[in-house]
Amino acid sequence: MKVNINGVSKAILAVWFEDNQVKLIDQRKIPETIEIYSAKNSDDIYYAIKNMVVRGAPAIGVTAAYGLAMASKNKENMEEAVKVISSSRPTAYDLFKAIDFMKANNFSESAAKRYALEITERSRKIGEYGNTLIQANDHILTHCNAGALAVVDWGTALAPMRMAHDAGKKIFVYVDETRPRLQGAKLTAWELQQEGIDYSIIADNAAGHFMKNKDINLAIVGADRIAANGDFANKIGTYEKAVLAKVNNIPFYVAAPGSTFDFSLKNGDGIPIEERDESEVLTVNNSRIGPVEGHARNPAFDVTPNEYVTAFITEYGIFRPGELKKLYSLIHEDLFMR
């Protein structure tokens, strides 16, 4: 992805492996500064995933893959390393897909690099398919961050937008702020700005206003886990955007690689929903915004039923919820996905 450093545009990955360390752009520091977090063991990988140094299901999977390769080279107890890393966040299915992939490939560094390259190439294909859904001058809504930071490069929801922009379609993006961690305001807006794509940050509860006023042509979001019937988990607040889109006859697309589909789950009822510390809701920039003795609930994700999804944009093509059996067959035939 493009990053402007001291006035110079450079290409950089969100996650990579170097000198037997896993290097990550520290997403907690963006947009104020670009800092690199270096993980040196499986505990550091756990910390990076749990504490949101890295965010986005595909990027979490790549981080886990590199982390396990590093742990193996360091001669860590691999059973313990797998246990530690798999306990970091429960909702993102890519985490467990990556762990299974590394187990099947003896935790080798070459396997981890292959996993990262595969995810990046699949994201590029998502961009190509998704771009066919975008018309010139479209105004697009997105929620949370599903850009290059959330993958390694390209992104999922943002990949079609990048390609539409490069094709000269002059798109405009409405970026939900995404409380409480503000991934949209901090990360998505930053990525769009680096790419030169026009955007506006909007409050999470403003999307309905713009939909009703015909200011939005389509919505594209990412996903953290997708069940066999098309119910999917994504950042908290996605469900209400999907409902609003359907009421206002706006196409609602979910962009995700095959590694995010969990066909072992019949529907979204079985998706575990992470609940994070209440302090994320009760404080902003270390200043408390609620009563001193007040409490908050902080689910990190919600589940959107398949009836609100227009289609899924994948590296295999575009599939409506009723067509996921065909997608399952394609994934099952894909040796990388096994």
TrEMBL record:
<dbReference type="InterPro" id="IPR027363">
    <property type="entry name" value="M1Pi_N"/>
</dbReference>
<dbReference type="InterPro" id="IPR011559">
    <property type="entry name" value="Initiation_fac_2B_a/b/d"/>
</dbReference>
<feature type="binding site">
    <location>
        <begin position="55"/>
        <end position="57"/>
    </location>
    <ligand>
        <name>substrate</name>
    </ligand>
</feature>
<dbReference type="InterPro" id="IPR000649">
    <property type="entry name" value="IF-2B-related"/>
</dbReference>
<keyword id="KW-0413">Isomerase</keyword>
<feature type="active site" description="Proton donor">
    <location>
        <position position="224"/>
    </location>
</feature>
<keyword id="KW-0486">Methionine biosynthesis</keyword>
<dbReference type="GO" id="GO:0046523">
    <property type="term" value="F:S-methyl-5-thioribose-1-phosphate isomerase activity"/>
</dbReference>
<feature type="binding site">
    <location>
        <begin position="234"/>
        <end position="235"/>
    </location>
    <ligand>
        <name>substrate</name>
    </ligand>
</feature>
<feature type="binding site">
    <location>
        <position position="183"/>
    </location>
    <ligand>
        <name>substrate</name>
    </ligand>
</feature>
<feature type="binding site">
    <location>
        <position position="89"/>
    </location>
    <ligand>
        <name>substrate</name>
    </ligand>
</feature>
<dbReference type="Pfam" id="PF01008">
    <property type="entry name" value="IF-2B"/>
</dbReference>
<comment type="function">
    <text>Catalyzes the interconversion of methylthioribose-1-phosphate (MTR-1-P) into methylthioribulose-1-phosphate (MTRu-1-P).</text>
</comment>
<dbReference type="InterPro" id="IPR037171">
    <property type="entry name" value="NagB/RpiA_transferase-like"/>
</dbReference>
<dbReference type="GO" id="GO:0019509">
    <property type="term" value="P:L-methionine salvage from methylthioadenosine"/>
</dbReference>
<comment type="similarity">
    <text>Belongs to the EIF-2B alpha/beta/delta subunits family. MtnA subfamily.</text>
</comment>
<feature type="site" description="Transition state stabilizer">
    <location>
        <position position="144"/>
    </location>
</feature>
<dbReference type="InterPro" id="IPR042529">
    <property type="entry name" value="IF_2B-like_C"/>
</dbReference>
<keyword id="KW-0028">Amino-acid biosynthesis</keyword>
<dbReference type="InterPro" id="IPR005251">
    <property type="entry name" value="IF-M1Pi"/>
</dbReference>
<protein>
    <recommendedName>
        <fullName>Putative methylthioribose-1-phosphate isomerase</fullName>
        <ecNumber>5.3.1.23</ecNumber>
    </recommendedName>
</protein>
